[in-house]
Amino acid sequence: MDSLIKLFASLLLFFLSSLLLAGEINGVESSHHHHHHLYGPKKLFVFGDSYADTGNIKNKSQATSWKVPYGITFPRKPSGRFSDGRVSTDFLARLLRIKTPITYLFKDYAGKKRLQYGMNFAYGGTGVFNTQSTSPNMTIQIDFFEQLLGNVYSQSDLSSSLALVSVSGNDYSNYLSQNGSIAALPAFIKQVVYQTEVNLRRIHALGVKKIAVPSLQPLGCLPRYASTSFQGCNETFNALVQYHNSLLEQVVAKLNNETKQTAFAIFDYYNAFFTVFKNKGENPGSRRFETPLKPCCEGSCANVDEKGVKMYTLCDDPTSAFFWDGLHPTQEGWKSVYSVLGKNLTASLIKR
């Protein structure tokens, strides 16, 4: 335990520097292997944070995701996504050959045809526990889902569905910002993963046949926590991530063993992110992301001072950047991650 405490001791400064207000999530995409669609999930249900949120935050005045320049690439205006364009949910839906599922916020305005692709319950800034008073945690998101069963969605609907369960670091940033003990951090990581297991079991028990949970992305490489020149990652920070991911792998293996089927799958965002960083793009030798850790939107993205002057600077071409802001990938960044994961992901989703 002492070595773990020392290992994570330096995390405090990084966590306290700012909350991961917009959360993290990840997904996986591929534009190939569409012939698998007939055997794959027809509906996508999404639970999580800003890596998956496609517009659930109601108070637009507080959320940067509803402010310029967010959405500058797609749909060319802010849409509630924490990126310049599409996020993980969009790419996963594309892989399944279905439309991006409607957000829970707008469910009452959607016709039956729009509801047939599933629903997105993810809210930026949330975790498995309470991380923001304004956004529902994972348990409440699953409550929302359960309330729709038998009403909007039937058990037969769920038999051909996939759930994406995104847990990406907000619990840890919130815990330490609330003066959580460094010494108890390893124990808290176990609590987060255990609660994730509870959530996975519950979603499966409700009838969802296939459930995907991303591994935690390398938090130490996020621009907010990387070196000031964006040349290197914080390795101590990433040690936390590796501990979380090792526990998550054990949980998924245990659940698959219990269910006697491959109902649960891990999307390996950790290694996919690193592959893109190393290649500076999807493929070896690419130069699409010349400085992968440097965000397109630097500073206090989307905010202006009392005189209306921008408190941020924007790169000329968002497609040249992997990260959009201090925490979130660009649309092009997500596209690259999905391309790296594409083939393996397709196989894991189609397997019964």
From TrEMBL:
Membership in a protein family: Belongs to the 'GDSL' lipolytic enzyme family.
What's the protein called, per UniProt?
GDSL esterase/lipase At5g03610-like
Q: Which SUPFAM superfamilies match?
A: SGNH hydrolase
Which Gene Ontology molecular function entries are recorded, alphabetically?
hydrolase activity, acting on ester bonds
Q: Which superkingdom does the taxonomy of this entry point to? A: Eukaryota
- Stored InterPro entries: GDSL (IPR001087), SGNH_hydro_sf (IPR036514), SGNH_plant_lipase-like (IPR035669)
Q: Which species is the source of this protein?
A: Arabis alpina (Alpine rock-cress)
GO terms in the biological process aspect are: lipid catabolic process
The answer to whether keyword Hydrolase applies is yes
Among Gene3D superfamilies, the record links this protein to:
SGNH hydrolase
UniProt keywords, alphabetically: Hydrolase, Lipid degradation, Lipid metabolism, Signal
Signal peptide span:
1-22
Pfam families in the record: Lipase_GDSL
